[in-house]
Each structure stands twice: as C-alpha cells, then as structure tokens.
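One such shown below:
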Amino acid sequence: MNAPHLARKRFGQNFLSDPNIIRKIIEAIRPAPDDRMVEIGPGLGAMTEPLMARLDHLHVVEIDRDLIARLKAAHAPDTLTIHEGDALKFDFAALAADGRPLRVVGNLPYNISTPLLFHLADSAERVKDMTFMLQKEVVMRMVAAPGTEDYGRLSVMLQYRFAMARLFDVPPGAFRPAPKVMSSIVRMVPRPLAECTAIDEALLGRIVTAAFGQRRKTLRNTLRDILSDPDFVALGLDPGLRGEALDVAAFVRIANHVAARDAQI
C-alpha cells in the first residue's frame, strides 16, 4: 500500500479531494472517448481516474517523481502516457502535431499559473479548449472587463487569444491541504486566427505591458516612448485615459498603427 503523499510547497501542491466538486468538474469538461486530452499536474489522480473512465487514452504532465511512480504503478501505458517534467517547458503543440486538436485540463499550481497560461497560449492554434482550476483572484483577472479593477495585462493578452468563461468556484475545503484562497474553474476556447488581427503580437504584448506598468498614469505617460501626440490624434485616442479604459480591440488598433508607422520609417 502506498504511503501518504506529503504535498510539496515548491510544486504548489494542493490536492483536490471533494468527490462532488470532482464530479462537477468532469461534467463541465464532458470528455468524449476519442478526445486527445492532456492533464497538467494529475497529482494523486482525483481528476485523472474519472477522466480515464471516459477516455480511450489520457496524457498527463507531472514533475513530482513520487507521483509519477504512483501513476506508473496504477496505470498501463496503453491507457495513460506520462510526460515527466515541467509543464512550463512542455511542448503541448507537439501532442497535436497530426492535426487532431488538443483538450487541456488541470488544477494549475498557484505559483506558476500566470506564466503557464502564457506558455499555453503559444499552442492555442492546436487546442480545442482548456478547462482549468485556478486561484479565483487569477480567474477574475482573466475574465475582467475594461474599466474594472481586475482588468489588466493578463485580461487583455488572454482575451485577445481566447474566449473565456468563469464556470464556478471551488472552496478551500475541497482540497488537502486546504489553501488559504478560493479557487475557480475557467474554460478557455481559442479564438479563430481570423479574429486575432494583430500584425505583430510581440509588439502588442509590449504595448499592453507598458500601458499597465503604472496603472495610475495616463496613456500619454505610459506610452510616451511608443506614441507621439500625432499618433494619438491619428488613432482618435484620448491620451488622458488610463490603460484600463481600453478594450482588447483598442490595444490591437494601437499595435497595428505602430507597426504600420514603423514599417514606413
């Protein structure tokens, strides 16, 4: 019999244990037998087991060697493929190299959730959907609307690439050990590439980062190295606004204006 696994703080481990919450998450995911699905951080298998009950095959990405050993002992490789290593460095797109879209799920570690979301966005064109459990505070920032306190760089950059919805909250008591924060389930569906109209997405990222770098300052100040007064006029943009006042389309418009302007220099 396996000894109890002690959650490791360095991996941000909090293991889901409430069967009703687990059932609710699985119903939200709605796995189909032939789905190509990868679970990030399977942990003790709370979601892994019910997912495998509905799938022909499941991929998992796990960094903890003890948990990997448990998974290998419990499941045959013809039903479970274990990718050992850091999800931040894993090539998710490679799992869908044959054109079959990937579904990604998981209880994401709090300590790497934001960089992991940006890493996953790089593989968005190979993904059908993603369903994650994250710290509620992070999910609120992901889905925030312009003009709200939670709206910022994470909101803009993820909403540019994904349609997102917060599905429901998960209380601390659903985990062992119980975290000090509320969690939420979020669904992310990649937008068609035709809707992602930034000429230079790296430039878009730099502009959004600058606009929210000092939230209390106006665009005239935060974007002073990017936009001149004539640029604001050409864009029909009030330089007295703050970054939080602009929707995603406005940021894309700014980025495309700058890209076109600089191409003429």
